[in-house]
Amino acid sequence: MYTHTCALRAALLVTSTLFTACLFTSGAYAQDTGTALPTVDVETSGEVTAGNPLAATSLSTDELKASNPASTDTAKVLTSVPGVSVNSGGGFSSMPTIRGLSEQRIKILVDGQPIDAACPNDMNSPLSYTMPQTLSSVSVIPGVAPVSMGGDNIGGVIAVSGPEPRFSTDGSLLLTGDASAFYRSNGDGFGGAVTLTAAGTNLSATYTGSYTQSDNYKGGNSLGTVRSTEYAKTDHALALAWQNAGGLWEIKGGYHFSPYEGFANQWMDMTSNTSWFVQGRYRGVFNWGNVDLSASYRDTDHEMNFLADKLPGDMPMNTQVHTFTSAAKFELPLSKRDTVKLGLEYHHQWLNDYWPPVAGSMMMGPNTFVNINQAHRNRIGAYAEWQAQWSDTLSSVVGVRYDRVEMNTGDVQPYGTSMMQMADAMAANAFNAIDRNRNDNNWNGSAIVTWAPADTVSIELGYAHKTRSPNIYERYTWGRGSMASRMIGWFGDGNGYVGNVNLKPERADTVSATLSVAPAPGLSFKVSPYYTHVDDYIDAVYVQDLLTPMGMPTDFVQLQFANLDAEFYGVDVSGEAVLAGTRENGTLVRASLAWVHGENLTGQLPLYHQMPLNAKLGVTYHAGALELGGELEWVDRKDRVDSRRNEPETASYALVNLSAAYTLAGWRLSVEAENLFDKGYYLPLGGVSLGDYKATGVLRPVPGMGRSINLGLSTKF
Amino acid sequence: MRMPPAFPKDRAPGRYTPGWGTGMRQSAALAGSLLLNLLLLAGVVAAMRGPDLLAPGVRSALVTIAITAQPKEASSPLAPPEPATVRQTAAPTPPAAEEHPAPVLLVEPGPAPVLVPAAKAPASAAEPQPAATALPPALRPAPLLPAEDASARIDAYRQQLWQRILAARPRAASGTGTVTIRFRIDRSGALVSAQVIGPSGQFLLDRMALQAVRRAAPFPAPPAAMGEAELTFTVPVAFHR
């Protein structure tokens, strides 16, 4: 380490000396200001640009902050993108679904780094470590995403990041930031977030911090309180950046703590989640190309047990995960037309999952239940991508990618070997007897062509072959007892899941098209049909009905992860029209519609948790400091359900949201009525309400939130 | 009835407490140090390249300034090519030079100066991409204009310069902001220096704007009428959504 420090110092010295030398010599021309040429305008959106697929959707800082002043769940913010919906979890841990594909099928990058699942119920999803108020960019790229954006996924990429480092432009100390706070009447939720940047011309420091908490929310109309929906969490991060002629060096560290988060649709609640990370990144722009080197380390301690609504009971479950990621990415412009992107990634995940014995319990003792014993999942990936800008109206991206995934895990053990624990004891013996080392060689490819035959029309065609290896829980969970298997699964259905060490990676072939039309200024329209066929889709097969310890039937079944064939097709449509004035200062109407059909081809059954047809219609009016908005959201009934999982049907519903905001002296005050008419409805992707079930014995789908009046206050400085 | 125990005895409790596997520790250390070294290497390489001032440009400048004999413009007997307005389709902000339509200089290099057919220039320039196709680099200063057109020629030259930068402008970028670049060329059109004089406060935007100017070089040789002081230019590059 000492040598590194010395080397670093030496390098810094060399760099700074050279930089000073540059400054000195360039002083020769400092006095002549030169002939001023007109401004060169660079449109960073709306152009046909290789590597910027039309199918991708980005939300800007302003959109993020203005449209969701009281949101604590980044995934829910993404539902404004057509084709994106969420599988509900805790109050800040929803899992996004893109075009029917969710969980690890989507690569989610936070500040460019993937975050691994560290829970058998996926409670600490990657986006749970973010707050919408502290993000500055969000982009969603569905299935045909260029391979340079990430491997080991079949459903697309979601990339969110905090503010890019800002530097002073005039040599003085730059102090900038924003702060916001909100209150939500439903559940008495409140929270606040701060972003603070202090920067000189070469050095920049940014702090982001947030806190939020909420009690259980109430369903609409007469649906009552939805139990196990309370939460609290805080996130803090400090980012330092240093820029010079040689590049941009960044180091960022952060801490996340959630003391509790109820999960309405899981048997367990999160009782503690602590995570810290540190990451470094170097970016350089040179004549020969761009460089992006990064490395990160994250450590997560996750604990589950029962919160108030699920008591009495005690069942501690602990998970520890260490993650190390490093990547070297190069972007080499070969000619004015061609750019080649090359990259190498390494990702290491180490996971331990164990359930300490419960004193005095016959079922949960006398030993520690070892669910996953020091499993690792290492992935090394390499890609090459060729971007060609054939003209201002034609571009293409073609890439191939190889990922090798190596997984293994240690021996396991059940709570004990008594008669009642026999299913788990035998399963443990069988699991320990087999070879669990698995290596997958995964190939990916994607090709996208974007063409604008006229100023008002752009067309994009894409094809991708993507592969994802099973995650640690899909491959290495083994408990076959009723209780042990019901602890596994992120489906919110209450059923038990058993891992399958023989799972194969899932391979998806996707074709999609996007047609974007802007027939007149202020009027635009986008339609994206798609089709995905997945070989060896990781779903589950029926094993047995689950019985109570007394042998009585229950509402739940046991399933085992298995490879099936599946297909998805559908269409996303969105459009907007400026009715009066301009987009920023006038009246704007937006509409979107999404439809997806997911089919289990092996069983000729509907796939689990597919969002029914849904549409949104919104009007916003901006006049100077005043902003008014109204939105109508409609979701069709869900009657295509996975009968093997006892997935409940849900009725159609329509919600009305109204909002108003006024900016005065730099402060923006907003008032929002969510679900104005207090409509009672069930979430189509919410799963079953196990918190309520435990208390009332009645099994119902998880209700959506009833009326909530939200107040938001924010400022920028 | 009791099952035989799966394990002789419970494992030591410490076994499941958080800790690093040895393999993990080694590989992480290895990868970490590898990456750190890479970073250092990148830093050193980057520093050696001394980006803000272009070493190659400087050198060629020293040579070419000496050999650029004044072209025999005064002796030119031929009429100037028909003026042609260049359309800047891709640029929403019209350049100042366009206020009085400037002639485009498209004189083919060669010993026998030929008149460029007037149709040629507008045809290529009117295409949606004003980029590389619009204005092929003239390798020599246009020598065939009467002296009174000197200022028009200088305007045209600036326009040409600007077009080349526009053609080389960055494509994808994240963020918005304006970067002002100052650059200097020599008599042959080679880039002598380029630097950010008005930063946007965002590293990538600054560097991408700078790269655009570098990629656009070498430029056509400037008209001889341009004074030494006029060979320095500033250009704002505005990134917006």
From TrEMBL, chain A:
<dbReference type="Pfam" id="PF00593">
    <property type="entry name" value="TonB_dep_Rec_b-barrel"/>
</dbReference>
<dbReference type="InterPro" id="IPR000531">
    <property type="entry name" value="Beta-barrel_TonB"/>
</dbReference>
<keyword id="KW-0472">Membrane</keyword>
<feature type="domain" description="TonB-dependent receptor plug">
    <location>
        <begin position="53"/>
        <end position="157"/>
    </location>
</feature>
<feature type="signal peptide">
    <location>
        <begin position="1"/>
        <end position="30"/>
    </location>
</feature>
<dbReference type="InterPro" id="IPR036942">
    <property type="entry name" value="Beta-barrel_TonB_sf"/>
</dbReference>
<dbReference type="InterPro" id="IPR039426">
    <property type="entry name" value="TonB-dep_rcpt-like"/>
</dbReference>
<keyword id="KW-0675">Receptor</keyword>
<comment type="similarity">
    <text>Belongs to the TonB-dependent receptor family.</text>
</comment>
<dbReference type="Pfam" id="PF07715">
    <property type="entry name" value="Plug"/>
</dbReference>
<keyword id="KW-0813">Transport</keyword>
<keyword id="KW-1134">Transmembrane beta strand</keyword>
<dbReference type="InterPro" id="IPR037066">
    <property type="entry name" value="Plug_dom_sf"/>
</dbReference>
<keyword id="KW-0812">Transmembrane</keyword>
<protein>
    <submittedName>
        <fullName>TonB-dependent receptor</fullName>
    </submittedName>
</protein>
<keyword id="KW-0732">Signal</keyword>
<keyword id="KW-0998">Cell outer membrane</keyword>
<dbReference type="InterPro" id="IPR012910">
    <property type="entry name" value="Plug_dom"/>
</dbReference>
<keyword id="KW-0798">TonB box</keyword>
<feature type="domain" description="TonB-dependent receptor-like beta-barrel">
    <location>
        <begin position="217"/>
        <end position="676"/>
    </location>
</feature>
